[in-house]
Amino acid sequence: MPLPSSARALKKPRLDDEVRFLRSWIEKPLHMGAVMPSGKLLARTMAHYVDPDSDAPVVELGPGTGAITSALIERGVDQKRLVLVEYNPGFCALLRDRYPQAKVVQGDAYRLRDTLWNVLSAPASAVVSGLPLVTKPMLTRLRLVRDAFTALAPGAPFIQFTYAVVPPIPKSLPGVSTEASERIWMNLPPARVWVYRKH
Asked: Which first-to-last residue range defines the signal peptide (predicted)?
C-alpha cells in the first residue's frame, strides 16, 4: 500500500540526507563519523545532556546534515546559541539553509582551538560531538577533549557518541568525571553516549 503524501514528504528529507551522507562517506570515508545520519533516539539522548535554559553557546562538532542539531532545537535550545563546526563545505551550505539563526563555522574540529578562537562570545554550556573519534589516534582524541574543555564553562559536558563497546576517551582522566548512557540498540549500528565533565 503506498504511503500517504504527507508521510512521503516526511521521509524524503531523511532519504536525501542518507544519500548525501553515503556520497560523502564514499568520497572521504575517514572524514565521516558514520555512513548514515544519527538516528532520532541517539540524537535525542545526546541532546538530553544539554541545558536548554542556559544562554551560553552550544558547540556541535561534525553536525553533518543536522540530525543532532534538530534534536537540540527540539530539546528547547535556542538556534541562536548553536555554533556548528563542520568540515564539509556542502554540509555547511545545507546547515546554513536549515538553521539560519545558528552560527555555522567551516573548519577542522580536530584543530578546535584554532577553529573557535574568535567565534565564542562566552564559555560554552556544552560541546556535542558526532566526530569519528575511534578512527583517530589517542593523542588526537585527547587533544580534542583538552581543547573542548578550554572552550567549556567549568563542569559543562563534552558529549560524544560511539559505536564501539569501549569509551572513546579513557575514563581515568585526572579531574574529569565520566558517565555513559545505556547502549541504544534501536540505532543502526547500536551506539552509546559518553559524557565527560572537567571540575
From this structure: none
For 101-125, what is the mean pLDDT?
96
pLDDT tier, 172 (very low <50, low <70, confident <90, very high otherwise): confident
For the chain, the C-alpha Rg in angstroms (whole number) is 16
Asked if 197 contacts 169 with a C-beta cutoff of 8 angstroms, the reply is no
Mean pLDDT of the chain: 86
Write out the DSSP string of 50-78. S-TT--S-EEEE--TTTHHHHHHHHHT--
Q: Which residues contact 128 (CB under 8 A, 6 or more apart)?
A: 46, 47, 50, 58, 59, 60, 61, 68, 72, 159
The answer to whether the Cα torsion of 22, 26, 27, 33 is positive or negative is positive
At residue 189, the pLDDT reads: 87
Name the pLDDT band for 95 (thresholds 50, 70, 90): very high
Question: In angstroms, what CA-CA distances link 66 with 17, 102, 182?
Answer: 9, 11, 23
Nearest-angstrom CA–CA distance, 51 and 155: 12
For residue 158, the model assigns a pLDDT of 98
- Pairing verdict, β 126-129 and 157-162: parallel
